[in-house]
Amino acid sequence: MRLNLHQNGNDMSLANSNVAVMERGVVVRKRWQRSLLTFFMVFGPGLIVMEADNDAGAVSTYMQAGGQYGLHLLWILLLLLPICYFVQEMVARLGIATGKGHAAMIYERFGKWWGRFSLFDLLFVNFLTLITEFAAISLALSALGISPYVSVPVAAAGLMLMVITGSYLRWERTVIVLCLVDLTWFVIAFVLHPAWSEVARNTLHPNLPPGKIGSGLILLIIAIVGTTIAPWQLFFQQSCVAEKRLRFADLKWARLDTLIGAAFTVLVAGAMMIAGNYGFQHGIHFEDPAQFAVAIAPAAGHFVRNGILLLMVNAAVLGTTAISLASAWAYGEVKGWQHSLHKKIWEAPGFYATYIACVGAAAAIVLIPRMPLQLVIVSVQVFAGLILPSAIIFLQLLLNDRALLGDRWVNRPWNNWINWTIIVVLFALSLLLAVQVVLPNLFS
Questions:
Q1: pLDDT tens for residues 130-181?
Q2: CA-CA to 49 of 20 to 30 Å: which in 34, 81, 235, 442?
Q3: CA dist 277 to 67, 268, 399, Å?
Q4: Cβ pair 290, 140 in contact under 8 A
């Protein structure tokens, strides 16, 4: 069998064979070869959306969980694995069915009021999150002796250059490489020699740290949920799927991509928590991962120290490019602008200007003297956990719209049971946070 693959400029589309196109033909003689080639062409959005969520806030939150409570909260990550997959699978299915981004669909199906409400929530929490990404770059590279007034502007310029080339494929390949850099977290976890029997027990056996349930523990659990599943992910992956022009024939591969991304992300998060546990075991108090990396250097070595600091920067870069694109895609859809990484900067000026403005403004805010950077990082994760339920409700309603998806692709009853359970749990966590704010001594 011969599949003709072609490329029209930088504009990649899947041909009838559901394989992305290149300039020369590729001979595919066996079915498994065809399937493997198709998967590699579909692969990307699921891994990127998941691993980019292991951003600066995630590094801080997971390591703080390990530093304060040891390995006791590992089981939460295992519970979040199927939740991550089910939520993002719906996003991929909706993106394939509509060929449009999430913001455009909310405007189209629920009207301008709800569309503006969801867009404002997205842009607001995204911008706050971007501040945390540059805060992490500042903290990490300061520990390596690089001034924030050098590291932050250079990082911002690099992030802008990453997307203005007018090539989705080039951007995607670059970001996938950055995702794979996070494999280094597993090396760091092994170098720190945790008790693997305890790791397994705390992963498979739900338990809480000894003592009373306090406000700090509740806030941290909400922050873990908020950083593992973030509202921007819904908008990002749907726009990404639409950008790649995937079809329903590609859905099984998009699902596999999403499952791989979810599993990889949870494993990396576990490695971060194991790293934080090293501080818990050795009585090392820390307020941010950069401080932790410096504090453990005498005992753990410079490889661990430098590795954690550079991985913080990598996490921040991943988070910044994905979150900024989620905002630019959503705003561009609503404004009716050209909004594609296939377009050159002069072909989609509003789209690229939104991305550049988000990156530049967040970088500038971080350079304000005496900004409480670690407080901002943790607070944003809690806020993301609060607005997540409403974002998932929109997604759930869209996935039950038969006029939009038809009988074949709408949610099945078991989908709805799972999804409404997720929504109820998220609302319960949000309610606990609200109660804690109103009655701060309730869980003392």
A1: 988 998 898 899 989 999 999 999 999 999 998 987 788 889 999 999 999 9
A2: 34
A3: 5, 14, 40
A4: yes
Looking up tokens 């602008």 gives 337
CA distance 261 to 51: 7
Q: How many CB atoms lie within 10 A of CB 7?
A: 14
Contact 155, 134 (CB under 8 A): yes
DSSP one-letter string for 239-260: HHHHHHT--GGGHHHHHHHHHH
Q: From 117, 159, 154, select the one nearest 138 (Cα to Cα).
A: 154
CA–CA gap between residue 436 and residue 129 (Å, rounded): 23
Q: Of 241, 234, 269, nearest to 255 (Cα)?
A: 241
Confidence of residue 371 (pLDDT cuts 50, 70, 90): confident
| pLDDT tens digits for range 306-331 | 999 999 999 999 999 999 999 999 99
Residue 171, Cα to own-chain centre: how many angstroms?
A: 16
CB burial string 240-265: b at 16+ within 10 A, e below:
bbbbbbbbeebbebbbebbbbbbebb
DSSP state of 402: H
The tokens for 161 are 């250059």
Residue type, 90: M
**Is 305:293 a contact under the CB 8 Å cutoff?**
yes
Radius of gyration of the chain from Cα atoms? 21
Rounded distance between C-alpha atoms, residue 28 and residue 12, angstroms: 20
Contact (CB, 8 A) for 226 and 382: yes
Residue (of 338, 356, 408, 440) closest to 130 by Cα position:
356
Separation between Cα atoms, residue 403 and residue 415, nearest integer Å: 18
